[in-house]
Amino acid sequence: MRVGFPIILVNFKTYRESMGHKGLELAKAAERASGETGVCIAVAPQTPDLFRIASGVGIPVFSQHVDPEEPGAHTGSVTPESLKEAGVSGTILNHSERRLRIDLIEEAVRRCTSSGLLTCVCANTPLAGRAVASFCPEMVAVEPPELIGSGVSVSKARPEVVGGTVRLIKEVSSGVHVLCGAGITSGEDVSAAIKLGAEGVLVASGVVKAKDPLKALMDLAEHSIPS
Fold first, then answer.
1. 13 is an annotated ligand-binding site residue
2. 12 is in an annotated binding site
3. Do you know which Gene3D superfamilies this protein is assigned to (predicted)?
């Protein structure tokens, strides 16, 4: 499934609102918003729902995590090969709620690339973003942990973090796309991020727990198009 920019990547986390049938309905709302606005919207469901959702919608589906192990005796691990078989387009890596050592991030990016999966690596600071950009993932998402789920967007509260991450990452590789996350809840938050040089956002509760997820998605998508 083709990924374009700007992108809105919706992390379902493990909220009840994104579980099972509700997760599929949320993914269909994302598909509708993407179709109506022309903006790429990708979703990252819970692992048990990946195959169902990837089979049920025509937008990119990401996993929330992947392990760098080769196929074999690794009970409980999620391999890139298994995600590819499930119809998944890519994966989030190193989210603040699922941190990885730097060497494991590098190996996971390498394994995903060789398996044909895209990677979005999370970083908590601009310097961390520069470090993981050297592994050449498709995307790096800067997310100060203290703002995640706060309702206070990084693009407004700490614009220097977004701008600084864009600058440092582009110095390493102009081909790495920079996203921002943490507290993104409105179209205005997205507009602010785009103006700072970001090429998309990583969102979660602002969509998943919204009273009207489709309305929330439309607002984010409509404001992600550079004016």
1. yes
2. yes
3. Aldolase class I
